[in-house]
Amino acid sequence: MIVDYASIALRNLRHRGIRSWLTLLGIFIGITTVVSLISLGGGLREAIVSQFGVGSTEVIQVQAGGLNSFGPPGTSVPNPLTIEDAEAIERINSVEAAIPRQIVTVRLEFNDILVIGTATNIVYGEDRELLYEILDVEALEGRLLEESDNGKVVLGNNFYFDDKSGFEKEIRVGDKVTINDNEFEVRGILKKKGSFIFDQIIMLNDEDLESISDFGDTVDLIEVKVRNKELIEEAQEDIEQLLRDRRDVRKGEEDFEVSTPEAALSTVNDVLTGVQVFVAMIAAISIIVGSIGIVNTMTTSVLERVKEIGVMKAIGAKNSDIFYQFFIEAGLLGLVGGIVGIICGIGIGYFGTFAINSFLGASTAPQINWVLITFTFIGSFVIGAVSGIVPAIRAANQKPVEALRS
Amino acid sequence: MNKELIKYSLKHMAHRKARSFLTIFSIFIGIATIFIFVSFGQGLFDYVNELKSTSGADKLMIIPKGIGAPGLDSTFYFTEEDIEAIEEATGVYEVAPMYSKAAEVENDRVKKFVFLIAYDPEDSRLVREVFNIGIDEGRELRSGDDQKVLLGYNYKLDDKIFPDGLTLNDNLEVQGEDLRIVGFFEAVGNPQDDSNIYITNGFFEELYPNSSKKYNQIIVRVDADNIPQVINRVESELRESRDIEEGKEDFFVASFEELLEQFTQALDYIVYFVIFIALISVVVSAVNTANTTITSVLERVKEIGVMKAIGAKNADVFSVFVFESGFLGFVAGLVGIFVGVVVTGIAGALLDSLGWGFLSPHYSWELFLGCILFATLTGAVSGIIPAWRASKIRPVRALRYE
Fold first, then answer.
1. Predicted ipTM?
2. Cβ-proximal residues to A119 (8 Å cutoff; 6+ apart), any chain
3. Taking burial as the number of CB atoms within 10 A of a residue's CB, which of A17, B212, B300, B361 is the most buried?
């Protein structure tokens, strides 16, 4: 039965040639826009989130409260954490290690050019390996800093290229750079991480960083490694309790943040999702306009075929038969527009993500969201069919005698 | 095109109510969307332009380089010596060194982190010109105002920063010290700036002895006619006092105008992008209009034949159909503007109540005219091909057409 309706519908659509094409074009443009924007937005979001370079999942980050969304950890904090806080956290049972990190703005000079950069400390002892693991860094050339490497520096991947570092010249292992007026020898260059923070990082041994900038015993960020994954929540609560005591604040009035990297990203994620929804909504307007096109085409089509409807009814077609006929025809218009739209949308998504990647230096794949695609696929048929409802009802209610006389 | 033909077209459109209505509907949605975003974009543009002309023309901002939001990274700062060096540059009239820091404020056991800005009350006028706001209630900071604080507008409101709004002469705990509120600034119109708190430089140095004389930004009033030269001079004075070679500066000197332009540029891109997306719906509606016109031509093939048989020229037939689609566009433009004005009015009021008062729509006659013209043009252009086909119909064939 459905097949019959569909084949009659297809014949009718073909018969009306250019008008069917135009209607399809209308719905197709809207769907292409929405699909491409959503997959692009997904890719963009992944690219942005990857900038934060979150490696391990068994890590909790602790930072003092402040205007933390305005800069790197520790820059806008009224009451910073201290080394003693980190030591106290390390004594908690569920915690394997608590690594204090400094994030310091420094002047980096090379090739007689000055660049303002971000330096971070590499701690001594067993925690060194762990810190490398948490930061998820490897050397591309040379090697990572070892304890004996005082006076040496490891640089992010961007410094390997003359056009990305701002120095107009590639930096290689063994080169000398000046950091805050002290000379350092480059010991290694990191592999690309696809994150603008880590690809521009300057890594120095703890003592070296302390000697060129004075942060005393304040700490910008404490990376906490938990004994095992199941203990994350417990550890988080323990740390919060400990810091409440140490900083003398009541529950609910914490002036510090204890969060898993995923949780820290949730704000960024929320904002990006909001933007994506907004843009998709604006784009969805064109789908609405496209569906109005279907209503229009179907209305015309009913008017044109009044006589035909009369004949069909005269030879025994029921009201419901006529209704389904037009309903399915409209649905098909939507569906075909939708399929073409999805294909083009995904194509644009791929192309756009490629552009984002080369722009941000990230390496993300476009997000092909199959749920979304299935939804669009069904949705386009539904949009078409719904647009066809009113014209189809009109068609179904034609009186055969009048229809034949018109 | 004569009166007869216009009357003929209008009658035809009135006859095909449903179809005309749907065509108008599809065009006006896109037009209304564009109207909404352009009017907000223009409002924003006006706001920035006003800032530029009232407060920007004769001012420079000097900011240390750093990572993150300006003023928060205190790695690099300016010393008293730097201030004196700037004062010496020719073309510099007034120099206002300022501090900025993230601070913890507390009221009724609710803690918040906000921007704290400190300036010298003697520079009040210069500073206020840059902020472009006056005092809403209470008074300005005065020299020797220890333990006193001037607040941004949002502190007056309930449920904005604290559950209960603050009033004049209340105390606010800043970094553990009780400060008395001497005044409130007027609303800037964005939640960020309206949450700032202000104290005097003197009191700041007491509150943060470690940051004393390490200024985070400097506002300078200069000779408005020679801004580029003054910037050069200030830069070279600063290089000398900080003992830095050219090209290795750890600070920026920029005119206020330049800074504002960077800010608007980013916003412009966003507005353009949204308008571009909205334009797509107009393209779709143009396709719909073309479709309507094609149908309308097909229906009237016989009529066209008759018209031609009694002497209508190709141009007459062409203009009938272009007029029809253009007219539909014109009506859609009117409806679109109407809907746009209603929506922007409501949205503007809503944004204002949320503390985003600087985002308000601006209506200009260019915008109204532009929207109507654009809608009419969209209609007319999408009618061209069908109309051209109609005009080429051969009368004999048309009369025979079934």
1. 0.71
2. A102, A103, A104, A105, A106, A179, A201, A202, A203, A204, A209, A213
3. B361
